[in-house]
Amino acid sequence: MGGFTAWQWLLLVEHELLLFAGIFFLIGAIDEFAVDLCWIWLRLTGRTTTARADLPAPDQRELLGPAAVFIPAWQEAEVIGATVRHALSAWPEAALRIYVGCYRNDPDTMAAVASAACGDRRLRLVVHDRAGPSTKADCLNRLYAALEQDERRSGTPARMVVLHDAEDMVDPAALSLLDRAIGDADLVQLPVRPEPQTSSRWIAGHYCEEFAEAHSKAMVVRQALGAGLPSAGVGCAISRPVLTRLAQERGSADPFAPDCLTEDYELGLGMGDMGLKTRFLRMRAEDGRLVATRACFPAQLDQAVRQKTRWIHGIALQGWDRLGWSTGSVRRTAVEFWMRLRDRRGPLTALVLSVGYLLLALAALIAVRGPDNALLGLMLEPWVILLLWLNAASFVWRAGLRFAFTGREYGWREGLRAVLRIPLANIIAIMAGRRALFAYIRTLAGQSIRWDKTAHHAHPASFPLQREPA
Q: What total number of domains does the chain contain?
């Protein structure tokens, strides 16, 4: 061993990295393929068909009971006005009230909300009694307290609470669909549809394929298998009595955990653990559009990494601490364990992807700068060659599905871009995984958790919506 040259050592390192990456890529491929098979079976048995919504005309729609919409906001002056104006216009129902939560040290956002009200009494600006930012869950708790105050004053409790973000563009049919569905479920989640942005085809665009596949396949499979459904935090309706029960379960006046970065994810799984019914509702309007919450996702690399850092930190790392792996006393199944394992694979995925790209760099270095025929010294066992072929086939399969799901919602051009964006999406995942791990370590050292939110500068209402295929 001591007689090895530097290049021989590099070949040895390359071989070990190849085994590590190849094995874990195959494990991930098997995991994804299992979900694919479930979806294909559901498809063949007609259980993935997206139904058409049968709703009366907008001016004839009435809610079955009062609905409260919660929109927490911190430094959202650029987009909150458009969000509020569109929601008030798209949802003319008189039984609606929109609560927008702002912080006392954020006057610009408060001014934007007040300006967007245009005298509509269905909008209520709620100012937090502490300086921001705290956490999104803490702001939601402040909105919940305002709702309770209004209910005591009016004597009429809300029927449901709908969660939205400051940059959302709601669908005109969404409120009526949620109002109908909440009678049969305790939590109802609509799909999320990122809008393609011509100014950021690659960074913002990579969210299109992620949500197209997740909300056309993964969530459908989870629901069919009876696993807990994580809430997306937007386009999500919760039965009003459930919020009271959640607060009681926490031994607090607040239903949302203020020290949680992904309170939406924890909310959905927590309700499943309590035996409450959750439902993913995927429907199309009469004109063929998907009834979904539209939003412009981050267009800059640093902002995309920041957002995904929060997701990985909250879901994969905090979720491990706060929710564990069991499903409470109601159900304890292998399916649930499988889905939570999928949810928490973010840091491992980042590590395996990092090893994969390091492997490519080493191979290029040895091929370009190494001795003649250096790569011939890397002797691969037959089973390793088979491993590489399986991973290659898996990549082709995954790219094909990514094209199919994205093309179905956005057209074939965006489907093609989705395939070309795979390396960029991997780089963002690597950067976010590393940042999330260090953020988690800092919280273990005693650093308080704060709302490390993403800055929003674009709103779907500022440009024409692209019509997706029916």
A: 1
Distance (Å, whole) CA 318 – CA 311: 10
Domain span holding position 303: 1-470
Which of 194, 415, 443 is closest to 304 using CA atoms?
194
Could you tell me which of 301, 345, 319 has the C-alpha nearest to residue 264? 319
The token pair at 26 is 């195959």
Cα(119)–Cα(291) distance, rounded to whole angstroms? Answer: 28
Residue 443 CB burial class (10 angstroms; 0-12, 13-18, ≥19): middle
Query: pLDDT tens-digit profile of 183-214?
Result: 999 999 999 999 999 999 999 999 999 999 99
Please give the DSSP secondary-structure letter assigned to residue 432: H
- What is the residue type of 274? M
Taking only the tens place, the pLDDT of each residue in 11-20 is 778 888 989 9
**Which spans in 214-262 are helix H?**
219-225, 240-250
Find out whether 229 and 214 touch, Cβ atoms under 8 Å. no
Contact 291, 177 (CB under 8 A): yes
- Which pLDDT band, with edges at 50, 70 and 90, does 330 fall under? very low
**At 178, which CATH number?**
3.90.550.10
Residues 137 and 265 sit within 8 Å (Cβ to Cβ): no
Q: Name the nearest CA neighbour of 20 among 428, 319, 384, 470.
A: 384
What SS3 state is found at 125?
strand
Query: Residue 237: how many CA atoms within 13 Å on its side-chain side?
Result: 29
